[in-house]
Amino acid sequence: MDFDSLFKGRFFGITYAVIFAVLSIPAFRIFPTHPNLIGAIFIVMVSLIVVGIHDINQTRHAILRNYPIIGHLRFFFEKIRPEMRQYFFEGDTDGMPFPRERRAIVYQRAKRELDKKPFGTQGNVYAEGHEWMLHSIVPAPLAKELFRLTIGGPDCTNPIMPRS
After folding, report:
1. What is the signed CA dihedral for 65, 69, 72, 76, rounded to 10 degrees?
2. What pLDDT is attached to residue 8?
3. Cα 33 to Cα 38: distance, rounded to the nearest angstrom
């Protein structure tokens, strides 16, 4: 392993933890007014070094063995993936099995809050197959013919007649 790969490669997490831990030792003399902050940084970096050494020596997870310290980010993001998707990436109308807007109605009703959203929609009203009904200030006149059918032909003994 060459020196350059420590700073760019898979071990950069543990390398930087060692560097910051070593630099925090003389920082106690350089910044004597902030011993608690420097001490906290030193403790965190030493803890990360211990985690990194454990990661390198363990045999259960190849990700942690190959990427000490940084490999934990994968498991962290994998754990919070549903929340990230729900709160940041999922739209209000494209969730599965129920979209956010329908879940919100259930949550609001469970809390006995107002569950109505007036004035508009978040749905794509221009999408193929979307149907809606428009109102008219001046409605068209009704057609003169009746919109009723007689069910049963001339051979029917008991036809169903429309009421007038």
Report:
1. -170
2. 65
3. 10
- The confidence band for 48, taking pLDDT boundaries of 50, 70 and 90, is very high
What token pair was written down for 120? Answer: 């508009």
What is the rounded CA–CA span in Å between residue 45 and residue 47? 5
pTM: 0.50
Q: Is the dihedral of CA 54, 60, 65, 69 positive or negative?
A: negative
Q: Which of 46, 47, 27 is nearest to 37 (CA)?
A: 27
Give residue 116's pLDDT: 74
Cα–Cα dist 17/19, whole Å: 5
> With contact defined as beta carbons under 8 Å apart, do 48 and 14 qualify?
yes
DSSP string, 59-119: -S-HHHHHSTTTHHHHHHHHHHHHHHIIIII--SS--SSS-HHHHHHHHHHHTT------S
Contact, 161 vs 150, CB < 8 A? yes
